[in-house]
Specification:
The chain is mainly β and 98 residues long. The chain is built from one helix and ten strands. The chain has a single domain (3-97), classed as Jelly Rolls. The strands form two sheets. It has a five-stranded mixed beta sheet with strand order 1-4-9-6-7. A five-stranded antiparallel beta sheet has the order 2-3-10-5-8, with no helix packed on it.
Length: 98
C-alpha cells in the first residue's frame, strides 16, 4: 500500500486538525507540481482555489479532473499520484474519514 500523504508530500500537505474520527489536511501546489504515490482513506475534498489535476492510480490508470472552488467532491479511499496539470496554483482542504 502507498504511504501517508503527509510523509510522501510534506511540502504540499499539512495537518490542520486531527482527532479520533477525522483528519483535515490542507493541500497547496503550483503548476507542474507532482506528489509521490500516496493513500487517502474515504475523503471529502473542498477546493478553495480551482485546479486541474491528473491522478495516476496504482494500477497505472489515470484521469484528469478539474476542481472548482466551493464544489466539494467525495472520493472513496484509494492511492494515487497527484499532478497539477493546470496553469494556476491550487488550494484544497481534504477531510479524511477514520
Amino acid at each position: 500500500m502507498a504511504g501517508d500523504a503527509i510523509k510522501i508530500a510534506s511540502d504540499q500537505y499539512k495537518v490542520v486538525l486531527e482527532n479520533d474520527r477525522i483528519r483535515v489536511l490542507e493541500y497547496r501546489d503550483k503548476p507542474g507540481s507532482k506528489t509521490g504515490m500516496h493513500y487517502h482513506p474515504d475523503v471529502l475534498a473542498i477546493p478553495i482555489a480551482s485546479g486541474k489535476f491528473k491522478f495516476t492510480f496504482e494500477d497505472g490508470n489515470s484521469m484528469e479532473v478539474e476542481l472548482k472552488p466551493n464544489e466539494p467532491v467525495f472520493m472513496q479511499g484509494h492511492s494515487h499520484i497527484t499532478e497539477n496539470v493546470g496553469d494556476t496554483a491550487c488550494h484544497v482542504i481534504l477531510v479524511e474519514l477514520k
